[in-house]
Design a protein that fits this description.
With 232 residues, this protein is mainly alpha-helical. Helices cover 37% and strands 2% of the residues. The protein has a two-stranded antiparallel ribbon. Helix 1 packs antiparallel against helix 3, helix 1 runs parallel beside helix 4 and helix 1 runs antiparallel to helix 5. The termini are far apart.
Length: 232
Amino acid sequence: MIRDVLGSGLAVAGAAAAVRSPFLHWYGGRFGRQYRIDELFTGLTGARPGPLGSGPLGSGPLGSVLLAFLFAALLTVVGVALRSRLLVAAAGVVTLGFTVLWMVRQGEATGSLTVAGDGSGLQWGVVYAAGGAVLMLLGAVVMPGRHGGGQPARGHHDEPYAAPGSENPDRWPPTQEPGPSVQTSPLPEPEPDPYAGPPPERGPESRPEDRDTTPHPAVPDEGPGPERPPHH
């Protein structure tokens, strides 16, 4: 939460500084909004955009570097709203790129870039533009993003764990038997009864001496038969 607020604050402050910079002097008493955006690609001239609304887009302040910085500020606002570090970083790159490009063209036009106390060199407008770009890049670094801040994505802990396969046998005590797990209850498996005595008797038929071993029904004894003479 702290990183989110701090990163968003840095990004918004950088965007505000970048939009403010064209309304300040950049070099030799010339405002940043007086540099046409096409001059950054073709070379600086003495021509200056007219007042707002005095013609097409290329001839007013919106045809100056202010247009690039307004676009960067819009990217910053959208990036902060969506918590997108990529958009905020892109806004910082756009602002820094146009500032560096202007410095290259200004150096080509004057032969060198100087800083003078009498206002004949680099002035606060350039500082605001470069500083705003740095603040936006720092904000993109500090921002945690959508799933940042050390917090896992929603639903991460709600996903069930996959059952172990045959390559991971279940050796949970007391069975110690290999094979895939079939335990579906959250309760532990029941342990066997520690009693190891003889099994209880289930009735008279369970005793060997009381079992009927005759394969057929026994014929009742009808008494002694006739006596037979002894053999000599």
